[in-house]
Design goal:
The protein has 451 residues and is mostly helical. 77% of the residues lie in helices and 1% in strands. Helix 17 runs antiparallel to helix 18. The protein is globular and about 55 Å long.
C-alpha cells in the first residue's frame, strides 16, 4: 500500500496545525516537545486511498447504526408481542443511549491517543455481540440489558468515524467528506426500515435482531481490514502524551464562543431526529390508522431524504459565505416547520405525508453533516477526539432522556400530537437562540473561507 504526500504543506494546512496552539485567543503550546510536534506540516494524503477510507467509514457507520436507526420500524412489533406501554417502548430506545453518555468521553480521549482502526472496529464487534444476544432475549428486561450493551459499542462509531475523516481530508473537502460519511447513519436506517419490518412480520422480531448482528459484524471486520491512519495523525497522538507545554483545558472548550451554537443545535436537533425515527410510524398508525408497513414506508422516505440531506448540506457548508453553522441554522428553522406540517389533518393522504416526511428527513436528519464538520473545525487538532466525544456525550444525554419522556408525554395526553408540538416549540427556541453567530465564530469562518 503506497501513500503520496506533498513535500511541503501549504499555508492553509499550517493554519490547521497552528490552531492547536491558539484556542479561544489563548496560546497553549509555545514551548516544549508538544509545540515542536504541532509546528510540523500537517500533510494530508493526496492519494486516492482517502476515498477508500471514506467508503469504508461510511459503510461502517451504516452497519453500526442499522439497528439503532431502524428500531422505530420494529417498535410496533415488539410493543404488540410484549404488551408494552408507550413509556416502556421509549425506555427501550433510551437504554441503548445510556452507555454512550460516559463511553463517548472515554472514546474521545482514546481517539486522541490511539489509532481509530481498533477503537471503531472493536466497537462494531460489540454491537454485533449485543444484537446477537438480543435475538435470544426472552423478555423485556433481557432485551433492555442487551440494548445497553449495544449502546456501549455504538459509542465508538460517531466520534471514531468523524475523526478518521478529519485526519484524512483537507478543509476544502472536509465538509463534503464528512457529509458522505454521516450519510451512513440514515443510510443504515433506510436499509433497516426497508428490511427489518419484513423480517419481523414473517419470522418475528428476534430474527430481525439476528439480521442486525450480521450487518454489524460485516462493518466491524471491514473497518479493521481496510482502515489505515495517515502519517501525520501520529503527530497529534504524540502531542497528546508529549511534555513541555500546557494543553487547552477541558473547561476552555466549554467556554469557547462556538460551544453555544454547537450545544443548542445538537441537543435540540438530535431530540427531533430520534423522535422522528422512533415515533413517526406509531404516530401515523395512531392518528391516520395507517398500517405499520405503510408507516414504515413513510419512515423509509424520511431516512432516504436524510441521506441526501447529510451530503448536500455538508457540501453547502464548505462554500457557505456565512460560515459552516449557517446550514445548521437553516435546518433548525426548516425542521420546526416540518413538524408543524405533520400536525395538519389531511386524512392520512400519502400525497401529502410523503413530501412532508421527505422535508423533515432532509433537514431533520441531514443537519448532522454540517454540524459535525463545524464541530471538528472549532476544536484544536490535538483535541478533536475529546471535543467530538464531549459534544456527542451531551447529545447522548438528550437521546437517552427524550424517547422515554416523549413516550411518557404520549401516555399522559393519549396522543403523539403533543410530542410534535413540544418538539416544535423547543426547536423554535433554539432557532431564536442561535440566530446570531458567536463573534469568534464569524471571524473563524471568514478566515477559513479565505484560505
Amino acid at each position: 500500500m503506497r501513500f503520496y504526500f506533498r513535500k511541503q504543506a501549504p499555508a492553509s494546512e499550517m493554519q490547521d496545525c497552528h490552531s492547536a496552539l491558539a484556542f479561544g485567543g489563548r496560546d497553549f503550546g509555545a514551548t516544549g516537545e508538544r509545540a515542536a510536534l504541532l509546528k510540523m506540516p500537517m500533510r494530508n494524503p493526496t492519494s486516492s486511498y482517502r476515498w477508500t477510507i471514506l467508503a469504508v467509514a461510511t459503510l461502517t457507520q451504516a452497519s453500526a447504526s442499522f439497528l439503532v436507526q431502524g428500531f422505530g420500524a420494529l417498535a410496533g412489533y415488539i410493543k404488540a408481542d410484549l404488551g408494552l406501554s408507550g413509556f416502556e417502548i421509549g425506555l427501550l430506545m433510551s437504554s441503548a443511549s445510556v452507555a454512550p453518555i460516559f463511553g463517548l468521553l472515554v472514546v474521545g480521549e482514546l481517539l486522541d491517543r490511539f489509532n481509530e482502526r481498533w477503537i471503531v472496529g472493536v466497537g462494531s464487534l460489540v454491537i454485533a455481540l449485543a444484537s446477537g444476544l438480543a435475538s435470544l432475549a426472552g423478555g423485556y428486561v433481557g432485551l433492555l440489558f442487551c440494548l445497553i450493551l449495544l449502546g456501549a459499542g455504538y459509542s465508538t462509531a460517531q466520534p471514531g468515524g468523524a475523526k478518521s475523516i478529519a485526519v484524512w481530508f483537507e478543509r476544502a473537502q472536509r465538509g463534503f467528506a464528512m457529509g458522505i460519511r454521516q450519510a451512513g447513519l440514515p443510510l443504515g436506517g433506510a436499509l433497516s426500515v426497508a428490511s427489518l419490518p419484513v423480517i419481523a412480520a414473517r419470522w418475528g422480531w428476534h430474527s430481525a435482531f439476528f439480521a442486525s448482528t450480521c450487518v454489524a459484524l460485516f462493518g466491524g471486520v471491514l473497518f479493521l481490514v481496510f482502515y489505515r491512519a495517515p502519517d501525520h495523525a501520529e503527530n497529534f497522538r504524540a502531542v497528546a502524551a508529549a511534555p513541555g507545554g500546557p494543553r487547552p483545558p477541558r473547561m476552555e472548550l466549554l467556554r469557547h464562543p462556538s460551544t453555544r451554537n454547537i450545544a443548542w443545535a445538537g441537543i435540540t436537533m438530535v431530540s427531533a431526529q430520534f423522535a422522528i425515527t422512533l415515533f413517526l410510524p406509531l404516530y401515523l398508525t395512531e392518528r391516520y390508522h395507517m398500517a405499520l408497513p405503510d408507516g414504515a414506508l413513510v419512515l423509509l422516505v424520511t431516512q432516504v431524504a436524510g441521506v441526501i440531506g447529510r451530503i448536500v448540506l455538508a457540501a453547502w457548508s464548505d462554500r457557505a459565505k456565512s460560515g459552516r453553522f449557517f446550514p445548521v441554522f437553516c435546518c433548525l428553522a426548516a425542521t420546526t416547520a416540518g413538524l408543524l406540517a405533520l400536525l395538519v389533518p389531511v386524512a392520512g393522504s400519502l400525497l401529502y405525508l410523503v413530501p412532508v416526511a421527505a422535508w423533515v428527513g432532509f433537514f431533520g436528519i441531514g443537519w448532522y453533516g454540517p454540524w459535525v464538520a463545524y464541530l471538528a473545525e472549532a476544536a484544536p487538532p490535538d483535541r478533536v477526539g475529546f471535543a467530538l466525544g464531549l459534544a456527542l456525550a451531551a447529545n447522548q444525554i438528550t437521546i437517552c432522556l427524550s424517547p422515554a419522556l416523549l413516550g411518557l408525554l404520549h401516555d399522559l395526553f393519549g396522543s403523539y400530537t403533543a410530542d410534535w408540538i413540544v418538539l416544535a416549540v423547543i426547536l423554535l427556541a433554539a432557532t431564536l437562540m442561535t440566530r446570531k453567530p458567536a463573534p469568534n465564530t464569524v471571524a473563524l469562518a471568514s478566515r477559513a473561507n479565505s484560505l
